[in-house]
Each structure stands twice: as C-alpha cells, then as structure tokens.
Amino acid sequence: xxxxxxxxxxxxxxxxxxxxxxxxxxxxxxxxxxxxxxxxxxxxxxxxxxxxxxxxxxxxxxxxxxxxxxxxxxxxxxxxxxxxxxxxxxxxxxxxxxxxxxxxxxxxxxxxxxxxxxxxxxxxxxxxxxxxxxxxxxxx
Length: 140
Hints:
The protein is an alpha+beta fold. The chain is built from 2 helices and 6 strands, in the order H-H-E-E-E-E-E-E. The protein has helices at 2-6, 12-62; strands at residues 68-71, 77-79, 88-90, 105-110, 116-123, 131-138. Strand 5 and strand 6 (131-138) form a beta hairpin. The longest helix is centred in the N-terminal third of the chain and has 51 residues, at 12-62.
C-alpha cells in the first residue's frame, strides 16, 4: 500500500494541458506557414506581371502599335478592333491560350497622347474578390 502512494506519474489533467499547448503551437506554425505561402504566391504573380509589362514595352520600342492592342510572347501584334482599347488576355509567359491556366493577365496598352500606358491586371489567386495591377509608361 505504501508503494502505490509513492509512485509518481502524469495525471490526466497534466496530459490534457500538454496536448492543448502542443495544439496551440502547431496551429500557430500552420497559420504562419500558410500566410508565407500566400505572400510568396502574390509576389510571384506580381513579378510575372512586371515581366509581361516589360516585354510589352520592349515590343512597343521596336514596333508601332497601330491598330493592335498588345503583343504575343513572340512579339506579334494582336489585332483588336480599330480605335478600341480592348484588353488582351494572356498567360504569364505571354501566350494567348488562357483556357486552363491561372492567373490570367489582362494587357491594355493605351496611348492617348505621346506616352503609352501599359496596364497588366489580374485576379489574385489568393483573394479572387480583388484585382491587382501593374502600370508602366513608355514615351518614344
């Protein structure tokens, strides 16, 4: 009888408290990792849009826009309705087949005066309710 009273061990309360503490730590780690993943994805989307805008500026530098509204990845002007500013939908690599690739970037090149405005916009993958955009200017 004396031996049973002197044995030490963890009580059920101590085990439950340990489980709760470990749960909080794991939840915090998951939330932090998830947030970092979303931030990395948004950074990659913005970087792709900036590269796409830079490529459009390079094509503008070497080609007259005329009645075209944007350029493919190969530098071929995409036909648009004359005088309109209808945007072109492209992938991050500049290809025009956007059927099953996200994010889909929308390119709009306007030139109301001597300065061209290249606007790349897309729906954020992390938050579909919001739009993001990159705007670059070019004056030939």
